């Protein structure tokens, strides 16, 4: 479990962010990315000296300005639990997927939300759109049709 | 290169009977005896108590839970400790830390049997007071260093590498 994974799992949790400048931001994490850029809500910003305070409804922090984050003590346990649940869900899904798509041995089925105009579902209806030129062969997740 | 060659020590020193205390176990310091030398070197310290020095001079003591290639660290049950002149120190509980790797100066594993021997001879004081005093010391140091830098530039045309945020 990498530090940034812990951070993504800490969404909606209260946290304290100290910037390199010494300013601190107290707020709830809305979102973060792999650069440690953050968006926080209901933030109390304290100046480096700790003598001025600002209440900010929402703010964005560029990751490279962060010195450290302080997270709630319970976070480690919560993340562990969430992780276990995720694994179970994934195992369950994989199990079911195997049952619903017999014959698709590669396991790389197209999902409905992947876009592209002629989706060939592996359920066996063949071409649905009528325009699909490469009937039934578009199995590997590529959209070969040039329109 | 064969495995045997890698493990062979660099130096062909004759074993000296009267080795002084300082050079005992010096072989362990040769880099080739370590499996990893970069960020992965701390893999052995995971789930152990470590000490982390930050660039702003803060000392953190906690259990290292995870890290990554940038040396971003997650510490649990962290204690922040301030050391002051005249054998004084102060501590505060800080909980879970996620430290951005850039700000780490050094990290070391603690020997939990010996970690308290140093502070046993010191006097603990309230953290708030210690923090104030420490801030004052830092402010003074920044003032001195900027003066020095100015003088250095004027007198000899040299620049100083002191940065305000580097207080370790």
Automatic annotation (TrEMBL), chain A:
GO cellular component, one term: P-body
Regions annotated as coiled coil: none
Pfam families linked: LSM
Biased composition, class Low complexity, residue ranges: 98-125
Gene3D superfamilies, A to Z: 2.30.30.100
One MF annotation (Gene Ontology) recorded for this entry: U6 snRNA binding
Subcellular location: Nucleus
Name of the protein this chain belongs to: LSM complex subunit LSM4
Occurrences of domain Sm (ranges): 2-75
SMART domains assigned to the protein according to its UniProt record, in alphabetical order: Sm
Key words of the record: mRNA processing, mRNA splicing, Nucleus, Ribonucleoprotein, RNA-binding, Spliceosome
Subunit details: LSm subunits form a heteromer with a doughnut shape.
Species whose genome carries this gene: Babjeviella inositovora NRRL Y-12698
InterPro entries according to UniProt: Lsm4, LSm4/Sm_D1/D3, LSM_dom_sf, Sm, Sm_dom_euk/arc
UniProt cross-references to SUPFAM superfamilies, sorted A to Z: Sm-like ribonucleoproteins (SSF50182)
Family the entry assigns: Belongs to the snRNP Sm proteins family.
Main function: Binds specifically to the 3'-terminal U-tract of U6 snRNA.
UniProtKB/TrEMBL annotation, chain B:
Domain Sm residue range list: 37-113
Superkingdom as given in the UniProt entry: Eukaryota
One GO molecular-function entry: chromatin binding
Localization in the cell: Cytoplasm; Cytoplasm, P-body
SMART domains membership: Sm
Cross-referenced InterPro entries: Lsm1, LSM_dom_sf, PTHR15588, Sm, Sm_dom_euk/arc
GO biological process, one term: mRNA processing
Gene3D superfamilies for this protein: 2.30.30.100
Assigned keywords, A-Z: Cytoplasm, mRNA processing, Ribonucleoprotein, RNA-binding
Signal peptide: none
GO CC annotations on file: Lsm1-7-Pat1 complex; nucleus; P-body; ribonucleoprotein complex
Function summary: Component of the cytoplasmic LSM1-LSM7 complex which is involved in mRNA degradation.
PANTHER family in the record: LSM1, U6 SNRNA-ASSOCIATED SM-LIKE PROTEIN LSM1
Homology family: Belongs to the snRNP Sm proteins family.
Assembly and interaction partners: Component of the heptameric LSM1-LSM7 complex that forms a seven-membered ring structure with a donut shape.
Protein name: U6 snRNA-associated Sm-like protein LSm1
Organism: Babjeviella inositovora NRRL Y-12698
């Amino acid at each position: 479990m990498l530090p940034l994974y812990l951070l993504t799992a800490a969404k909606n949790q209260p946290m304290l962010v100290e910037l390199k400048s010494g300013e601190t931001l107290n707020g709830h994490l809305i979102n973060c990315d792999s650069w440690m850029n953050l968006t926080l809500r209901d933030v109390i910003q304290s100046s480096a000296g700790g003598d001025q305070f600002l209440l900010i409804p929402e703010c964005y922090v560029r990751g490279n300005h962060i010195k450290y984050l302080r997270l709630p003590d319970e976070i480690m346990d919560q993340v562990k639990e969430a992780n276990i649940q995720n694994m179970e869900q994934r195992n369950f899904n994989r199990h079911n997927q195997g049952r619903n798509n017999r014959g698709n041995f590669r396991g790389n089925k197209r999902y409905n939300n992947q876009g592209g105009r002629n989706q060939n579902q592996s359920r066996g209806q063949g071409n649905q759109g009528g325009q699909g030129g490469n009937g039934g062969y578009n199995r590997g997740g590529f959209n070969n049709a040039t329109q | 290169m064969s495995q045997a060659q890698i493990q062979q020590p660099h130096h062909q020193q004759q074993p000296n009977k009267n080795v002084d205390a300082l050079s005992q176990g010096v072989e362990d310091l040769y880099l080739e005896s370590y499996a990893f030398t970069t960020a992965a070197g701390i893999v052995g310290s995971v789930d152990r108590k470590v000490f982390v020095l930050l660039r702003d001079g803060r000392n953190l003591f906690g259990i290292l839970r995870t890290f990554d290639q940038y040396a971003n660290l997650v510490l649990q049950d962290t204690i922040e400790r301030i050391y002051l002149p005249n054998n004084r120190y102060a501590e505060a509980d800080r909980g879970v830390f996620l430290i951005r790797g850039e700000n780490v100066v050094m990290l070391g594993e603690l020997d939990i049997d010996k970690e308290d021997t140093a502070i046993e001879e010191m006097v603990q004081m309230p953290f708030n007071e210690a923090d104030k005093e420490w801030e004052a010391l830092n402010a003074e140091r920044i003032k001195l260093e900027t003066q020095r830098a100015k003088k250095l530039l004027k007198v000899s045309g040299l620049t100083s590498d002191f940065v305000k945020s580097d207080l370790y």
